[in-house]
């Protein structure tokens, strides 16, 4: 999918890791980079609060959508 130019949104670190592994296997030639380097979006959870229903409330560290933006994850973002 990367070489086909498909735009992808990644929702968590597992998805990001898998795409990085595939990218590494594809190599880092300029032609390959142009095909897939700019096709990735990463959903970031700003960790602004919580709520009574974690799955549908304001993003918190345990929110199920997006990569939590914390001191720990910041270097990986």
Blueprint (SSEs and pairs):
Layout: E1 8-10, H1 13-26, H2 30-36, E2 40-42, E3 44-45, E4 67-68
Parallel strand pairs: 1-2, 3-4
Integer-rounded radius of gyration: 15 Å
Instruction: Kindly state the percentage of residues in helix.
Output: 25-40%
Mean pLDDT: 73
Strands, total number: 4
Query: Could you describe the largest sheet, including whether it forms a barrel?
Result: 2 strands, parallel
Neighbour order of strands in the largest sheet: 1-2
From the spread of the alpha carbons, the general shape counts as elongated
Order of helices and strands: EHHEEE
Distance between the termini: 22 Å
Uncertain stretches: none
Given the structure, what is the number of helices? 2
Structural class: alpha/beta
Question: What is the strand content?
Answer: 5-15%
- How many domain regions? 2
Task: Please characterize this protein's 3D structure.
InterPro entries: PLP-binding_barrel (IPR029066). With 77 residues, the protein is an alpha/beta fold. The chain has two domains: 1-41, no CATH class; 43-77, no CATH class. Helix content is 27%, strand content 13%. It has two helices and four strands, in the order E-H-H-E-E-E. The chain has helices at 13-26, 30-36, and strands spanning 8-10, 40-42, 44-45, 67-68. Strands 1-2 form a two-stranded parallel ribbon. A two-stranded parallel ribbon has the order 3-4. The longest helix is centred in the first third of the chain and has 14 residues, at 13-26. The chain is elongated. The two termini are 22 Å apart. The model has no long low-confidence stretch (mean pLDDT 73).
